[in-house]
Design goal:
The chain has five helices and eleven strands; from the N terminus they run αααββββββββαβββα. It is α+β, with helices and mostly antiparallel strands. Helix 1 packs across helix 2. The chain is globular and about 45 Å long. The two termini are 15 Å apart. The relative contact order is 0.14.
């Protein structure tokens, strides 16, 4: 069970993720630390809490998240049948995350055959597409890592996908479960932070990026609430 100090750090980092997402939506240009600090302070005021947010705490949290400042990214095209929203590369060789998507829309994902979900032979295809400008679309259905469910600006659930075996219970499967369980009416968008890299041909790699040591793993565990 997390201590109060650990819960405060987790909340502070969730505010940081929200601030980074807002800045990314507003501009494709890299954000300075002062910009991230100001945006995180806005989130803190909205939450009615302080938790000692400073430029130094933000700098430390950014290092713990990725080892380096997150890079700027480019928006992709949104298509109704496939969720081709923006996704981001994380700095190569950093220890925790390989790619992530922020606040993708639930209603742009095809969840079942009634919505026209494609079928290949006897197998129903799982599709969770992301596309960067100039790049091939990538199907992140079997991505593993961290995911968050959002209702407006509020995060209602945080979970972790440890490993997708034989195409089962990857990112798509976990999200699909939440369209039918007790959270089905509580979220409209989702974010994900993946451990699997993207190969040069646009396919999702089997190479799994993981924390390089126990300290990194502890930092990651403090960031999320793991509910399997």
């Amino acid at each position: 069970m997390l201590t109060q100090a650990a819960r405060d750090r987790k909340d502070r980092r969730n505010w940081l993720l929200t601030a980074l997402g807002r800045l990314a939506e507003a501009s494709n240009s890299p954000s300075h630390l002062s910009d991230i600090y100001e945006e995180t302070q806005k989130v803190a005021r909205e939450e009615g809490r302080d938790l000692g947010v400073t430029e130094q705490t933000i700098s430390n949290d950014l290092k713990n998240l990725s080892g380096k400042k997150l890079p700027s990214t480019y928006k992709g095209k949104v298509r109704k049948i496939k969720n081709r929203l923006e996704w981001r590369y994380v700095v190569p060789k950093q220890p925790i995350l390989a790619a992530y998507g922020y606040r993708w829309k639930r209603n742009l994902v095809v969840w079942d055959r009634k919505q026209g979900r494609p079928k290949k032979g006897d197998r129903v295809e799982k599709e969770l597409w992301g596309k960067k400008t100039g790049d091939k679309p990538v199907n992140f259905a079997e991505q593993v890592g961290i995911y968050l469910l959002h209702d407006g600006r509020r995060t209602v659930y945080v979970g972790r996908i440890q490993k997708a075996k034989s195409g089962k219970r990857g990112l798509y499967d976990r999200l699909f479960e939440h369209t039918k369980d007790g959270l089905k009416d509580d979220w409209e968008k989702f974010s994900w932070f993946g451990f699997l890299q993207v190969d040069e041909d646009g396919s999702l790699s089997k190479n799994h990026v993981s924390p390089s040591n126990d300290d990194k793993d502890k930092e990651l565990e403090e960031l999320i609430t793991t509910i399997e």
